[in-house]
# Entry
Amino acid sequence: MKQRTRIILAMDETDKEKAIRITELLKDEIDAVKINWPLILSSGPEMINKLSKITDVICDLKVADIPNTARLIVENAVARGACAVIVHAFTGEDSLKAAVEAADGKAEIYAVTEMSHPGGMTFTAKHAEEMAELGIRCDVSGFIAPATRPERIKVIRKMIGTKKILSPGVGAQGGKASEAIKAGADHVIVGRSVYDSEDPLSAIREIQKDIRSVL
# Structure
């Protein structure tokens, strides 16, 4: 995945025409588009194929299953053109290894250390360091750490060395892009505040400006 603007657009839309239109509009302003179950379920898995022709696609499937199922999910996402897949680490070493092996170097695997919403404090935050250690053992490409809690990004960064960090929660959830980047994130993830904006291009450029202020 390229690193030009350090912005990943979370396209949590259910309107496939809007999703394609906004991605086309912003393709030169972002490093990738991240799609989740809402778009895949409403528009079909072929959306991975369609969007991958426009820009890099991260499948945020938050895979959390037994090794065989994890393998099948990752293989199918990669076959459709995904450049990365996000998985949960709490399912354990065998499942996480299966995801990494299924990617077979054709895509990156990102393990969730801690979720960005307030509920993430209930369970994932308490075990974030353990999941980061597990991800290192399984040789994932990088980790998900919350832009809503930059201090947690700093903790994970110290543990993982040069592996990548993608930080969700910028915009609608209250996270600030510059703070996440300054804390050690490689990319920030922003969604509703851009794709639901009356002027998505201006919205994304404001985030770019905020990021440049700390680079």
In short: The first strand starts at residue 7 and ends at 11. The chain has a mean pLDDT of 96.
